[in-house]
Design brief:
Blueprint: E1 3-4, H1 7-15, E2 20-22, E3 29-33, H2 37-47, E4 56-58, H3 62-68, H4 74-83, E5 88-93, H5 100-103, E6 108-112, H6 117-126, E7 130-131, H7 146-153, E8 159-160, E9 173-176, E10 184-187, H8 193-200, E11 234-236, E12 248-252, E13 264-267, H9 274-289, E14 295-298, H10 306-317
Parallel strand pairs: 1-8, 2-8, 4-6, 5-9, 11-14, 12-13, 12-14
Antiparallel strand pairs: 2-3, 3-7, 4-7, 5-6, 9-10
Helix pairs in contact: 1-6, 9-10
Bound molecules: threonylcarbamoyladenylate and magnesium ion (MG).
Magnesium ion binds at residues 133-134, 142.
């Protein structure tokens, strides 16, 4: 396990081509300088991620975005001015200087200006774009604390910058402007569909990726049906129904009926606040996963606002392997 580092150390390490786990307001990212193919190749290697799944490039300012994209349509720019810095990723036609490895050979690049103060200061001081997928092993639950990163990637990682628990807790919303026409929501996340549409009008949303709709995975190569999965079997269900025998865990939104039936109960938000539920989701999934359970039953949350992102992650976690 390598060391926790200070912000200047993180900047220096990135300049040397090393990888640093960096805090963002969504989840921790596994960062390396996006312009250097050798560094980017190591990101894929450490994460165990297939190279057909492109990375998000993080920059500190709109000027820096202009340097890595070849066009920036007005609607995309409106979203950028409304929601950046923040949990929104825009997929835009890429500029030549972004290596093909970053974009998995696609002519578009995913870009984000994160809001976390450490991420912003790091990007400003570094003055180079940083490619960063979530700092988890491929297909596993994303990290929302530095300890989560150390647990999963500590042995292979150069450095971890600890910026505390992530305030949003689910990944950024990914919106594509790669094709002409109506923008397309590739991944629900920290900015709700309602908020996007309030700024730019209708956004296409292909069928959520489930076992019945695997085709959408080709639009956003990373949105594979089985993703965000704990090792313990997880299924979606009604927590008031009869449960199977054995040590069963419950992942509940506001409350759990007759909790004594369960070995462990995790409540995401007693007051029914979707933002709080999102912030708690991945840590709760990890605690359940570490509890030696036979199975986990999770209930869906209301399907609006951040609830869509939460239900998307739950559906993927429960996807029948
Ligand atoms: O909140 C986040 O977005 C976090 C933090 C670290 O910024 N990052 C993150 O990265 O979640 P990752 O690699 O786990 O997810 C990136 C998603 C994937 O679904 C990927 O397929 C999609 O963005 N993506 C990246 N580039 C793309 C492109 N050019 N076209 C379509 N989808 C793209
Ligand atoms: Mg990820």
């Amino acid at each position: 396990m390598r060391e926790f580092c200070s912000l200047p150390q993180a900047v220096a390490a990135l300049k040397r081509g090393e990888l640093v786990a960096i805090p963002t307001e969504t989840v921790y990212g596994l960062g390396g300088v996006a312009l250097w193919p050798g560094t980017v190749a190591r990101i894929f290697e450490v994460k165990g991620r297939p190279t057909f799944d492109p990375l998000i490039v993080h920059v500190p300012t709109l000027d820096a975005v202009d340097e890595i994209v070849s066009s920036f349509p007005p609607a995309a720019r409106s979203l950028a001015t409304h929601f950046w810095p923040g949990p929104l990723t825009l997929v835009l036609p890429k500029a030549a200087q972004i290596p093909d490895l970053v974009t998995a050979g696609l002519p578009s690049v995913a870009v984000r200006i994160p809001a976390h103060p450490f991420a912003r200061e790091l990007l400003e001081r570094l003055a180079l774009p940083v490619a960063a997928p979530s700092a988890n092993l491929f297909g596993r639950v994303s990290p929302t604390t530095a300890a989560h990163v150390a647990d999963q990637l500590g042995d292979q990682l150069d450095w971890i910058l600890d910026g505390g628990p992530c305030s949003v807790g689910v990944e950024s919303t990914v919106v594509s402007f790669a094709e002409a026409g109506v923008p397309c929501l590739l991944r629900p996340g920290g900015i709700s569909l309602e908020a996007l549409e309030a700024v730019i009008g209708p956004v296409n949303w292909p069928q959520p990726i489930t076992s019945e709709h695997p085709a959408v995975a080709q639009l956003a190569p990373g949105t594979l049906p089985q993703h965000y999965a704990p090792l313990t079997t997880i299924s979606l269900g009604d927590l008031s129904q009869t449960i199977p025998p054995g040590k069963i865990g419950a992942l509940a939104f506001q409350s759990c009926p007759r909790p004594e039936r369960f070995a462990v109960v995790e409540i995401l938000s007693p007051l029914g606040d979707l933002a709080e539920a999102a912030a708690q989701l991945f840590a709760a999934m990890r605690r359940l996963d570490c509890a030696g359970l036979d199975a986990i039953i999770a209930e869906r949350v209301p399907d609006y606002g951040l609830g869509r992102a939460i239900n998307d992650r739950l559906t993927r976690a429960a996807w029948n392997r």
